[in-house]
Design brief:
- With about 170 residues, this protein is mostly beta strands.
- Among the domains are: about 60 residues, OB fold (Dihydrolipoamide Acetyltransferase, E2P) (Beta Barrel), CATH 2.40.50; about 40 residues, no CATH class.
- It contains 2 helices and 10 strands.
- The strands form 3 sheets. A 5-stranded mixed beta barrel has the order 1-2-3-5-4.
Amino acid sequence: METKAIPSPVENEQPTHQPSLLDDIVKHTTQATQSSNLPGIMLAELIAVDTEGSAQVLMMGENNTQRAWSLCPVSTSDIGKVCAVQYVNNNPQQPLIIGLLQQPHQPRQEPEPTMTLLQGDQQVVISASEELVLVCGQSSIVMSADGVIQIRALYIDSQAQATHRLKGGSMQLN
């Protein structure tokens, strides 16, 4: 005796297509791509960086600067460099720095600060090519290559057991 399988009603039904999350993403991406006239990546010049790390950029071919978020660290030493920018949610009012362009043929050469200890005279020499900064709490001494020395502190106490001289081309008090 031969047995035949009887198809169940579920096997004969055509599968219905339920929209999935993937379908929604593809649909949204297609609509965003068709509705957006913004390029994928734009170039801008880094114009300024404030104390909080917020950047100002000047988009290539534009005349006004914009405040930008950044995925990479930017500092005042990066001002003037070219950066790659995309827009958050394709909004031209929300630029996002995605990186700084590197100069492959011009490696960054920073002069190395040197520190020399001369033991015979009990002298320590610290040299820097541009600026030397000493900081302790709220006090600082800044020496620049152009001959300017700035001393900043809450209180400055200057004492001498012998003659205390102040010399200069001119003296200004207050």
